[in-house]
Amino acid sequence: MATTISNAPLTVTITESVNLNGSEQGATNTIEITGIDEITKRIVEVPTSEKTLVSFHATAISTGTYLEGDVRYIRLTNKDDTNYITLNIEGDASTDFSVRLDPYASFLITSSSATGVVDYADISGATLEDLTAIKATANSGACDLELFVACV
Length: 152
Prior knowledge:
Blueprint (H helix, E strand, L loop, with lengths): L7 E9 L2 E2 L2 E2 L2 E10 L1 E9 L4 E7 L7 E3 L3 E8 L6 E7 L5 E5 L4 E5 L20 E8 L4 E9 L1
Parallel strand pairs: 6-7
Antiparallel strand pairs: 1-4, 2-3, 5-13, 6-12, 8-11, 8-13, 9-10, 9-12
């Protein structure tokens, strides 16, 4: 069976708008990532115990697991109005890093190169390593989190 889905560019636009003393000080930045033919968009409930949101693998895909070389864009948005979420971004050499995702805040990972999330991050130095997973924990009450992943 041949696919009937054509790939398409993903356009991401980030706009800041702030008017200080009558003068606009914001900015708009846009990136276009070509060749997207797979997306996942869902809302998940993040409990107060750690939950794996996505995993990355070199050769195998399954529900919630993506080919690390194909991932081009990830957006995680906290939809809660009160509680924050701690995101734990894990690498293959156990050099994880964590970020706090406040209510309504988003965290982006963009890889417009052909390597996806291979050799992408390292918290302990300058030797980049493959991402293996993104996990999340809500701080004091379950939170809804919107997840968007785009792959080639």
